[in-house]
Amino acid sequence: MDTKWLQDFLTLADVGNFTRAAELRHSSQAAFSRRIQSLENWVGAKLIDRSRYPLYLTPEGESFQKNALAILSQLEEAKVSNVQFQEIQSVRIALSYTLALSRLPNWWKTWCGGQQLMCQTKVGNALETIAGFEAGAADILISYYQPTQNIPLEKSLYDRTILMSETLRPYCSEKLLKKRSFTFPGDKNRPVPFFNYSSDAYFHRLVNSIIEKPGAEFCGNLLGESEMSEVLSSFVAEGLGVAWLSDSSIIHKSMNKLVSLDKTGAWSMDIDVVAFVAKDKLNGHIKKIWQKILEEF
């Protein structure tokens, strides 16, 4: 149904004449009549009593007239509301689901500093958020970063700052640990049941660099993969196996206590959470937000 049909119908109801209504709607009478018929077919009832002159609305037409007025009024209000909404400046932030869920709300409360700004999140894995940021789909990128696994961004084009540091550690649940069904880092008789990140995830490379480094003697039984830390942490919380998790990804897993299996630090890796902004975007409200970020960190 075309909303123009509603305007046609209301005009016809007002003037009571097809010829005059067609003129007011800048349409030929034949085309105007077809649109009224199309509206009646869509409603499923005759709206105009064509047997009388001037034309009158049928009972169904009188009822529909009120609905048509309400619909057009609501559409106009939505249009005005949308214009006002668009006038609020927005900041597009690309980041992982983990950081969006666990860290961004507190950060944003400080960064916006009471300004009338809209936060638009562009959530995805590392490759997706970096690619979107490079393509201009985001104003600020927040990503995990480890020097051994570089992020493919041209340093001369972007400013960066470290927001915080975390540690990627192997975790299991207390429930699984009590079963003593494996040893860590595992052996051929009792391998570690573990979940890893999918091959396109940034953390996949980090975990592999931990368990495959020279001198490491990790023996595991891979049970599954996912690009999302939240999925792996849920598997761990249910006592299904072991996974390497960042500090942010276990914040909301308090109902099932998780235990780090690394007592020496040999099986863990420090990682930074880094914010990036394109130097040519450092103006206006983006510059103000970036200054707030630098002040806090």
Give a description of the structure:
This protein has helices at residues 3-15, 18-24, 29-43, 59-87, 97-102, 104-111, 126-134, 174-179, 202-211, 229-237, 284-296, and strands spanning 48-49, 56-57, 89-95, 117-123, 140-145, 158-173, 192-197, 220-226, 243-245, 258-260, 269-278. The chain is of the alpha/beta class. It folds into three domains: 3-86, Orthogonal Bundle (Arc Repressor Mutant, subunit A), CATH 1.10.10; 89-164 and 272-296, D-Maltodextrin-Binding Protein, domain 2 (3-Layer(aba) Sandwich), CATH 3.40.190; 166-270, 3-Layer(aba) Sandwich (D-Maltodextrin-Binding Protein, domain 2). Helix 1 packs across helix 2 (18-24) and helix 1 (3-15) packs across helix 3 (29-43). The two termini are 54 Å apart.
Helix-strand layout with pairing:
Elements: H1 3-15, H2 18-24, H3 29-43, E1 48-49, E2 56-57, H4 59-87, E3 89-95, H5 97-102, H6 104-111, E4 117-123, H7 126-134, E5 140-145, E6 158-173, H8 174-179, E7 192-197, H9 202-211, E8 220-226, H10 229-237, E9 243-245, E10 258-260, E11 269-278, H11 284-296
